[in-house]
């Protein structure tokens, strides 16, 4: 499964696709059939994000286990907040807190991902 762990390109591509689909689903009308379809596709992308992230975690966590573990945790929290925004939005419950948590967790996840040795070196 070298294509999953040689580079982070597949994982980053899945994240970009996931965030775009999440934003599309979040801003669609809550009762539309299209939103339900996009939400289901987004859930499939969540699974692919977790699989690619888990393979990278297993492959590279021996070099800095704590940072990789934190990134994995914040990645899961980010996905959790994405799902909470979509589900609570459909039920017409308040989502402001979950949007804020999503933004914070996403920024922390991106920072850790770029800071780790296998990530892009923006913070050198």
Automatic annotation (TrEMBL):
Keywords: Cell membrane, Membrane, Transmembrane, Transmembrane helix. The keyword Membrane applies. Signal peptide: none annotated. The chain crosses the membrane at residues 12-29, 41-60, 66-86, 98-118. Pfam families: DUF1516 (PF07457). Its main location: membrane. One of its GO terms (cellular component) is plasma membrane. The keyword Ribosomal protein does not apply. It is found in: Cell membrane. It is a multi-pass membrane protein. It comes from the Bacteria. Belongs to the UPF0344 family. This is UPF0344 protein H1Q58_11040. It comes from Planococcus maritimus.
């Amino acid at each position: 499964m070298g294509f999953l762990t040689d580079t982070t390109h597949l994982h980053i591509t899945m994240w970009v696709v996931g965030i775009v689909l999440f934003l599309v689903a979040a801003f669609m009308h809550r009762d539309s059939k299209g939103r339900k379809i996009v939400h289901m596709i987004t859930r499939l992308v969540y699974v692919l994000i977790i699989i690619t992230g888990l393979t990278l975690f297993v492959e590279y966590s021996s070099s800095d286990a704590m940072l990789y573990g934190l990134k994995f945790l914040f990645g899961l929290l980010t996905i959790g907040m994405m799902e909470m925004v979509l589900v609570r939005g459909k039920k017409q419950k308040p989502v402001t807190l979950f949007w804020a948590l999503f933004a914070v967790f996403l920024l922390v996840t991106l920072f850790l991902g770029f800071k780790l040795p296998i990530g892009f070196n923006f913070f050198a």
